[in-house]
Amino acid sequence: DRQMEPLRVWIQPTTDLPDFHASYPVRAREAFERWTRAGVPVAFTFVVDSARSDIPVVWVDKFDMPISGRTRWTRDQHWWIVGSSIEVALHHQSGTPLEPEAIYVITLHEIGHVLGLDHTQDERSIMAARVRVRDLSLSDEHTVQLVYSIPPGSVTVP
């Protein structure tokens, strides 16, 4: 319930990790802005102090599993997401560097998790477990709008 107070995002501005490119933080910010244009009723603001952020975005070299990004949540006793962080790899598991466009796509996917979306079987969706697209689909936009339009709590079948 943060419609009046924006979520504070900190994107790590630089790192000493190999193959880091100055465009990576820009592409990550563009991913947040894309979700905003999708009609998410949650505002994001960007901060320069990681300690004052709700969503820190940090760079890692690579993961020891076949993933390129990871989102961690903190939830309260009612399963409301009350905190999150995003890690984005600069390299595939094999060590091959990721391009700026891949950084954008990985961040889009991880922000979907921050917003409460899970993986889908639809390969045309940014929320597919193995992302094959470069942008949000209409399904992604409609799903996040639906999630934020229903009252909080359990969904029950009458």
Notes on the protein architecture:
There is one protein chain. Helix content is 25%, strand content 19%. The protein is of the alpha/beta class and 158 residues long. A 5-stranded mixed sheet has the order 2-1-3-5-4, covered by helices on one side. Helix 1 links the parallel strand 1 (7-11) and strand 2 (44-46). The mean pLDDT is 92.
Identify the strand order in the major beta sheet. Answer: 2-1-3-5-4
Which residue ranges are poorly predicted, with pLDDT under 50 across at least 5 consecutive positions?
none
Question: Topology as H/E string?
Answer: EHEEEEHH
General form: globular
Relative helix content: 25-40%
- Measured by DSSP, the beta-strand proportion falls in 15-25%
Largest sheet: 5 strands, mixed
Q: Find the count of extended strands (DSSP E, 2+ residues).
A: 5
- Give the assembly state of these chains: single chain
**Tally of helical runs:** 3
Mean pLDDT across residues: 92
C-alpha Rg, in Å? 16 Å
User: What gap, in angstroms, lies between the N and C termini?
Assistant: 26 Å
Report the structural category. Answer: alpha/beta
Search tags:
five-stranded mixed β-sheet, 158 residues, 5 strands
Indicate the topology.
Layout: E1 7-11, H1 23-37, E2 44-46, E3 55-60, E4 69-75, E5 81-89, H2 100-114, H3 138-147
Helix pairs in contact: 1-2
